Amino acid sequence: MLHTVTRSPFQSHSLTQCLAYVSAGDEILLLEDAVVAGLVKNKDLAAIKNSGIKIYLLEADVIARGLQDKCDKDLNLIDYKGFVALTVKHDKHMKWA
């Protein structure tokens, strides 16, 4: 399943809730304000990285917020083509807002 999270972890608990429900084979795409979860200085980043789930950041949203040099390098940046590829790969999708 593909999980998309759109709200900042500073505004919402949607990412925390998402991490509680993911399972093996799932992937998470952080987009819109949720990309701030990928900041190196985010205190919850360790939990995100230790979830064992592949996490992606939408590159356009990272750039739009001027965060390209502040995000953790272990997280995967993807473009819109990558976003489409993830939606094709997963037959189920859950949006966390």
Automatic annotation (TrEMBL):
**InterPro entries recorded for this chain?**
DsrEFH-like (IPR027396), Sulphur_relay_TusB/DsrH (IPR007215)
Q: Which residues, if any, are the signal sequence?
A: none
List the transmembrane segments.
none
Q: What is one GO cellular-component annotation here? A: sulfurtransferase complex
Report which superkingdom the organism of origin falls in: Bacteria
A GO BP entry: tRNA wobble position uridine thiolation
Fetch the SUPFAM superfamilies from UniProt.
DsrEFH-like (SSF75169)
Q: One Pfam family name from the record?
A: DsrH
Q: Which NCBIfam families match?
A: sulf_tusB_dsrH
Checking PANTHER family in the record gives: PROTEIN TUSB
Q: What is this protein called?
A: Protein TusB
Please tell me the species this chain comes from: Photobacterium leiognathi lrivu.4.1
Traced from the root, the source organism's taxonomic lineage reads: Bacteria, Pseudomonadati, Pseudomonadota, Gammaproteobacteria, Vibrionales
